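Database export, one record per block. Field names are fixed; values are copied verbatim from the stored entry.
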Amino acid sequence: MIGYVTLGTNKYDEAAAFYDALLGDIGASRVMEADTFIAWGVSPKSPALSIIKPQDGNAATVGNGVMVAIAMDSTDKVDAFHAKALELGGSDEGAPGPRGDGGFYAGYFRDLDGNKLNAFCLT
């Protein structure tokens, strides 16, 4: 249902390196690229995550309450993805672990621009 999610960045080159390394660990690579944006996915026909320099020329800002969730198929992969994000300079927003009673397991972090993401799986 979701085609892609775009995150604004003020640190284009650093964000590109962050997501190349982070998303590369789960088999994603650049599927589309131009002067002001890059999109990563596992194929051009799968959902993607992209970064962009805002078209209006103003600074990118973090949306309050906005979060991107990256689906994983195991708790080990959630743990590794969260750790990789922190290793690459992201900040912790909630260590990986179970949330609630429904078998939801997630780890939360912010990227270099402060965008909030999580890695999750259903156990």
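Remark 1: The CA atoms of residues 25 and 80 lie 9 Å apart.
Remark 2: The two ends are 22 Å apart (CA to CA).
End of record.
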